[in-house]
Amino acid sequence: MTQTRSIFDASDPMALFRDWLSAAEASEPNDPNAIALASVDPDGMPNVRIVLLKEIEEDGFVFYTNYDSTKGQELAQSGKAAFAIHWKTLRRQIRVRGTVSRVEAAQSDAYYASRDLGSRLGAWASLQSRPLDSRETLEARVEEARNTLGDNPDRPPHWGGFRLRPETIEFWADGAHRLHDREVWSRESRAGDWRTQRLFP
């Protein structure tokens, strides 16, 4: 059974994602762009954590992290990821699965430069995902970074963006009596056309 028309009256899933996120920005009290990002370790054990979605491109979703962190290493190793985003105020969620790779250095540089100074220094100071003996040690590392790098540090080589290029995108809207509206968009290749299919709730 092939569906040719979106139940959400959309012609492009990326545009629909932007529309839903825009609506959430007006209603969610905090971080409407927070996504639950899933990766998998070399043994096949999954990991999930919340990160902030920073860019929605024509053909991908971009977030930033420490490349040496657990998530950074798992993403680089598998080249695949998935995320879910949920807006309680709108009773909507979106699920995305696809391939992942690093964004271009210039793009990471530009985003890093837009962050506040504390966050830029923190990217240098934090050995993300590694054991930490105390808060004082972390704060000392931040101060050391400030003294060494000054007020305009370059982007650390171990920090930057990932781009998730979607292969499937599923939209979910709450319905009465748990008869929700679900629709999945998929394509066989990056250059291929998106196909949409309604799903049972």
TrEMBL record:
<dbReference type="GO" id="GO:0010181">
    <property type="term" value="F:FMN binding"/>
</dbReference>
<feature type="domain" description="Pyridoxine 5'-phosphate oxidase dimerisation C-terminal">
    <location>
        <begin position="159"/>
        <end position="201"/>
    </location>
</feature>
<feature type="binding site">
    <location>
        <begin position="49"/>
        <end position="54"/>
    </location>
    <ligand>
        <name>FMN</name>
    </ligand>
</feature>
<comment type="pathway">
    <text>Cofactor metabolism; pyridoxal 5'-phosphate salvage; pyridoxal 5'-phosphate from pyridoxine 5'-phosphate: step 1/1.</text>
</comment>
<feature type="binding site">
    <location>
        <position position="54"/>
    </location>
    <ligand>
        <name>substrate</name>
    </ligand>
</feature>
<dbReference type="InterPro" id="IPR012349">
    <property type="entry name" value="Split_barrel_FMN-bd"/>
</dbReference>
<feature type="binding site">
    <location>
        <position position="71"/>
    </location>
    <ligand>
        <name>FMN</name>
    </ligand>
</feature>
<feature type="binding site">
    <location>
        <begin position="64"/>
        <end position="65"/>
    </location>
    <ligand>
        <name>FMN</name>
    </ligand>
</feature>
<keyword id="KW-0288">FMN</keyword>
<comment type="pathway">
    <text>Cofactor metabolism; pyridoxal 5'-phosphate salvage; pyridoxal 5'-phosphate from pyridoxamine 5'-phosphate: step 1/1.</text>
</comment>
<feature type="binding site">
    <location>
        <position position="115"/>
    </location>
    <ligand>
        <name>substrate</name>
    </ligand>
</feature>
<keyword id="KW-0560">Oxidoreductase</keyword>
<feature type="binding site">
    <location>
        <position position="93"/>
    </location>
    <ligand>
        <name>FMN</name>
    </ligand>
</feature>
<dbReference type="Pfam" id="PF01243">
    <property type="entry name" value="PNPOx_N"/>
</dbReference>
<feature type="binding site">
    <location>
        <position position="172"/>
    </location>
    <ligand>
        <name>FMN</name>
    </ligand>
</feature>
<dbReference type="InterPro" id="IPR000659">
    <property type="entry name" value="Pyridox_Oxase"/>
</dbReference>
<dbReference type="InterPro" id="IPR019576">
    <property type="entry name" value="Pyridoxamine_oxidase_dimer_C"/>
</dbReference>
<dbReference type="InterPro" id="IPR011576">
    <property type="entry name" value="Pyridox_Oxase_N"/>
</dbReference>
<comment type="function">
    <text>Catalyzes the oxidation of either pyridoxine 5'-phosphate (PNP) or pyridoxamine 5'-phosphate (PMP) into pyridoxal 5'-phosphate (PLP).</text>
</comment>
<dbReference type="GO" id="GO:0004733">
    <property type="term" value="F:pyridoxamine phosphate oxidase activity"/>
</dbReference>
<feature type="domain" description="Pyridoxamine 5'-phosphate oxidase N-terminal">
    <location>
        <begin position="29"/>
        <end position="147"/>
    </location>
</feature>
<protein>
    <recommendedName>
        <fullName>Pyridoxine/pyridoxamine 5'-phosphate oxidase</fullName>
        <ecNumber>1.4.3.5</ecNumber>
    </recommendedName>
</protein>
<dbReference type="Pfam" id="PF10590">
    <property type="entry name" value="PNP_phzG_C"/>
</dbReference>
<keyword id="KW-0664">Pyridoxine biosynthesis</keyword>
<feature type="binding site">
    <location>
        <begin position="178"/>
        <end position="180"/>
    </location>
    <ligand>
        <name>substrate</name>
    </ligand>
</feature>
<feature type="binding site">
    <location>
        <position position="111"/>
    </location>
    <ligand>
        <name>substrate</name>
    </ligand>
</feature>
<feature type="binding site">
    <location>
        <begin position="128"/>
        <end position="129"/>
    </location>
    <ligand>
        <name>FMN</name>
    </ligand>
</feature>
<comment type="subunit">
    <text>Homodimer.</text>
</comment>
<keyword id="KW-0285">Flavoprotein</keyword>
<feature type="binding site">
    <location>
        <position position="119"/>
    </location>
    <ligand>
        <name>substrate</name>
    </ligand>
</feature>
<dbReference type="InterPro" id="IPR019740">
    <property type="entry name" value="Pyridox_Oxase_CS"/>
</dbReference>
<comment type="similarity">
    <text>Belongs to the pyridoxamine 5'-phosphate oxidase family.</text>
</comment>
<dbReference type="GO" id="GO:0008615">
    <property type="term" value="P:pyridoxine biosynthetic process"/>
</dbReference>
<feature type="binding site">
    <location>
        <position position="182"/>
    </location>
    <ligand>
        <name>FMN</name>
    </ligand>
</feature>
